[in-house]
From TrEMBL:
Residue ranges annotated for the Hflx-type G domain, each copy included: 186-369
InterPro entries, alphabetized: G_HFLX_dom, GTP-bd, GTP-bd_M, GTPase_HflX, GTPase_HflX_N, GTPase_HflX_N_sf, P-loop_NTPase
Protein's cellular compartments: Cytoplasm
Stated family: Belongs to the TRAFAC class OBG-HflX-like GTPase superfamily. HflX GTPase family.
Name of the coding gene: hflX
Gene3D superfamilies per record: 6.10.250.2860, GTPase HflX, N-terminal domain, P-loop containing nucleotide triphosphate hydrolases
Protein name (Swiss-Prot/TrEMBL): GTPase HflX
Keyword Hydrolase annotated: no
Cytoplasm recorded as keyword: yes
Main location (coarse class): cytoplasm
Pfam families xrefs: GTP-bdg_M, GTP-bdg_N, MMR_HSR1
Superkingdom classification of source: Archaea
Coiled-coil zones: 102-175
Source organism (scientific name): Haloterrigena gelatinilytica
């Protein structure tokens, strides 16, 4: 697929590096670009002369697609379609992102979220087609597509059905998170912009465990995350176990943030962020090799997103330190100190400082409580002792003739459950006496 990149900015020099990366991630070969610095033209986004230049460039390069890094309105898409050769598709950055999401979506939830985002994007275009049709202007030429009188209501019905199914999936996932927490697991979530290295870091944190071992240890663990130098390799959530003695920690990788996302796209994927909002600790991963202004902007946006609903502590992880020297790293630490007051600098690729990150995770997670329980010697006592070995750090078990004393430390929720089980054992022993 041969594509022309088009971008307009109000002032300054247009930067097309990100849209080029997105196009490559979607499988396009960029064969040219048209940029302009001026106020948006309400009809064409670009000025009329520049739009004609774009059409000439499409012919000259035999491009099949024009990708705008701007958000195109329905009528702008239609008008541009009229200028370009027949069969040439016009898409904007959000349609492009949806294409990538559609290619990468593997789970039912991710596929539904992509479909929901596509429908939310299509709805105003369906409304525009209705308006054009009433004026007897029939859109086509790969602009808005053909007119279908019933399409608008069909989209609204589909959106409603998908929302219902996503809600059912989220309820199931919430029950899964609760089971994990009740089983003594601390929940850590990786957040940050796409391509910051979250999936690589996840694999590094769980490097001592294979996926098969994970599955044996806990039936709810998900398949391993891919680590690729591509945008959006993680669309759903991926969970693996990290070994931080004496804790049992589950680390979840999530879909990456991307700049300038419209509300309808954020809404479509917001349930993916629930695993971030409901974690015990959030690791905000940043690519420290990027320009300082870009890192700053991404941190601000990430904090705005996370602080909206997140209550867990946030630790900033400056990743990819293998790409910067010590002096540059020190300068960036200092410049970002207000947003990231005590970051951990690591290289997920090289494994540098990962031990320090594991120690920091242990420090930031909720403190464990120490407990000493006296259990009566009954038929069910050993099952409780076994449960404590599985869900807590048991320091000592002392067996007497008529009772068992267990000393352990665990998450507060596990301590509470253990006390409840001990009480049930004592009640049952008293009733049978």
């Amino acid at each position: 697929m041969r594509a022309i990149i088009a971008k307009r900015v109000d002032s300054g020099t247009p930067d097309t590096s990100e849209i080029r990366d997105l196009a490559a991630a979607a499988g396009y070969t960029v064969v040219g670009e048209i940029t302009q610095s001026r106020k948006a033209d309400p009809a064409l986004q670009l000025g009329e002369g520049k739009a004609e230049e774009l059409a000439d460039e499409v012919v000259a390069t035999d491009a099949t697609t024009v990708i705008f890094d701007n958000r195109l309105g329905p009528y702008q898409t239609y008008n541009l379609g009229q200028l370009l050769p027949e069969g040439v598709e016009v898409i904007d950055r959000f349609t492009l992102i949806l294409e990538i999401f559609g290619q990468r979506a593997q789970t039912r939830k991710a596929q539904l979220q992509v479909e929901l985002a596509e429908l939310r994007y299509e709805l105003p275009r369906a409304e525009a087609k209705t308006s054009l049709a009433k004026r007897e202007e029939h859109p086509g030429f790969m602009g808005l597509g053909e007119y279908d009188e019933s399409r608008e209501q069909d989209i609204k019905d589909q959106i409603s059905r998908i929302n219902d199914e996503l809600e059912r999936i989220e309820q199931t996932e919430q029950h899964r998170r609760e089971r994990r927490r009740d089983s003594g697991f601390d929940l850590v979530a990786l957040a940050g912009y796409t391509n910051a290295g979250k999936s690589t870091l996840l694999r590094r944190l769980a490097d001592d465990l294979t996926v098969e071992e994970n599955e044996d240890l806990h039936p709810d663990l998900d398949a391993t995350a891919e680590s690729q130098d591509k945008l959006f390799t993680t669309l759903g959530t991926t969970t693996r176990r990290a070994d931080i003695e004496p804790r049992d920690v589950l680390v979840t990788d999530t879909v990456g943030f991307i700049s300038d996302l419209p509300h309808w796209l954020v809404e479509s994927f917001k349930s993916t962020l629930d695993s971030v909002y409901r974690a015990d600790l959030v690791l905000l991963v940043v690519d420290v090799s990027e320009d300082i202004d870009e890192i700053h902007e991404k941190l601000v946006t990430s904090h705005d997103t996370l602080y909206e609903r997140n209550e867990a502590p946030i630790v900033t992880v400056l990743n990819k330190i293998d790409k910067v020297d010590d002096e540059e790293l020190a300068e960036k630490r200092d410049a970002l100190s207000a947003l990231a007051p005590n970051p951990v600098a690591v290289s997920g690729r090289e494994g540098t400082n990962v031990d320090a990150l594991l120690e920091r995770i242990d420090e930031e997670l909720p403190d464990w409580e120490e407990e000493r329980l006296l259990l009566p010697m009954t038929d069910d006592t050993m099952s409780v002792v076994s449960w404590l070995h599985d869900n807590a750090h048991v320091e000592e078990v002392a067996y007497g003739d008529e009772d068992v004393v267990v000393s352990f430390e665990a998450r507060p929720a596990i301590v509470s459950q253990a006390r409840s089980r001990a009480s049930e054992l004592r009640t049952a022993a008293a009733e049978s006496a």
